[in-house]
What does this fold into?
Amino acid sequence: MIGRLLRLAWRNLWRNPRRTLIAMAAIAFGYAMLLFVACLMAGLRQQMIETGTGLLLSDVEVQAPGYYPERPIDQTLGGSNGTDVSALVAAIAANARVQAASPRVYGYGLVSATQQSIGVQLLGVVPGQEQKITTLQTRMVKGSYLTGRMPKGVVMGDKLAATIGVGVGSEVVLLAPAADGSMGNDRYTVAGLFHTGLDAMDRGLVIMPLASLQELLRLPAGGIHEVGIKLDDDGITAATATAAALQAQLSKTFPVRARAWPALVPQLADYVEFNRRVTFILFFIFFLLAVIGIVNTMLMAIVERTREFGMLMAVGMRPAQVVGLIVAEAASLAAASLVLGGVLGAPLLWYLQIHGLNLGGGRGAISLAGVVVGPRWYGRQDFTAYAQAALGLAVTALVAALYPALRAARFRPAAALRKV
Amino acid sequence: MICLALTWLSLGQASPRANDQRAREIVDRVARLYISKSTIATMQMQINKKGRQRNISMQFWSLDESKILVRIRLPQEDAGTAILKVGNQIWYYLPKAKRTVKIRASMMMSSWMGSNFTLNDLVKQSRLTDDYEIATSFEGVRDGVAVSEYTLTPKPKAAVVWGKITLEVRHGDQMPVWQRFYDEDGKLVRELTFSEYRIVDGRRIPTRLVMETMGKGGKKAVEQTTITYEKIVFDEPISEKLFSLGNLKQ
It folds into this structure.
């Protein structure tokens, strides 16, 4: 019965190809537009998370219990409290959601050249390993990122370098309060300069090999402050869940705390959530535009066929069957249109993800609420949103067909036949 | 008649001003207890922090109020570090890096060598009376000793970090008993206690200073630093050359 109805509906659709194609175009175009918007918005959220966490923070940080948020330099993992750092890193890397993990050391101090000294944050990383969890190495503007071959090499922000008057190859002196209370000091060579667009980093951060910073800060042998972790999914929910799983998994063996980025930078998480809501409103507006187009086309298509329905009922089709036929036509139409929309949209989505849109007009990235966006705005596939849009449009097409269908079913055949 | 009235008016004003002037003199003298034409001192600094103790031994030279040199002798890891202040400029000589670096004035207000003193406490010799208004806030007997308490509030445009400083001075020998530093919200931040008063080169000075930084909620902190003057000599001739950058690394 249903099969026969669908066959009939499909045949009906192609009895007037022009009308059907117009309706299909309305739905397919609406769907492609929604895909485009969803992809760009997901890309923006992703870029926020990536610049907010990917440059420096990482997705999850594992630290000694008393370390966060004050970050006192004597609260180390390994060294004094005896955690085996390499076993800890191995245990973290064993989690299926973890892509990479790398130990780090933090400190603060003065970076000084001939006549100028400035207070900065010091970060010690493992060259070669850190690049797997953060992306600062992609922002080098001069020289190169840290390598294992330069134990006394440091990289710093371009604005910091300009302020103290140094360049690649220059010597700088670092002066830092060490863990034992003494004043750590040594000479280093500037290996490279980075530019992120974030002033706090470009003006106030010096990165150096982990072992050099451990030595400068006189940390207990092998002592680190945290293990930074890169996850396969850094969305708010996924990262928080993975951090909780890591915590449960690790705390059996190690006295540590695992925190996901939404707990480390709640303002960024709030901002991403805010963006998600704004996106939803924008998405809804585009959705309404698509709905208007579809309702209009569907209504016209059915009102046009009043005479036809009158004829069907005159030859004995029951009103319920008429409604069924129209709904079946609308459903097939919607399904075909969504497939068409998807096929038309896919290259666009692919292009957005790979090439992005150029925003900056050559003027570089813009910094917004601590997040660098652009200069290229990349899309990201948000399949949940794509499915929601498809469902929404299909329901719209059905509802838009149902109203004129019910009206048609109430016609007396004679009256309907006289129309048009 | 008019003359009489004017005299009376000026007399009426003279009395509090004279009192104010005396308070200023006392505070000024206390702030400059260790300052002379020249000073040479050997100091021990004992830092107690989180159950750990650290001792720093250093030597101190000052000349004409504007030149100060501090050399750290012990512990081994900091030995050779030297701090030179000439006017408002400060340099550090760092023995490991074998370099002299210039320090920003803003760095002077943070903890020095992990102690509860700031570099500012050690090498700033400005007169408190330049930056603060001074009022006598208590006069009488405390713990069986006749004392005065002075309250120092920053002048409107003074570039100072404290919201208020109070200072207790004994009447008998005009020696300071304690000095308390408050933040801008009126919360006690740290307390400096003076003791072991001795006569050195004909001057009476406290030779033991204990600085305690208050914990959160104004509780007595577990962190404290004691400075003990082991040897102090006033007004001995010192060469200007001692206070030169070239002499820093020694």
Residues 139 and 194 of chain A are 5 Å apart (CA to CA). Chain A has two domains: 2-52+270-418, 58-264. The mean pLDDT of chain A is 85.
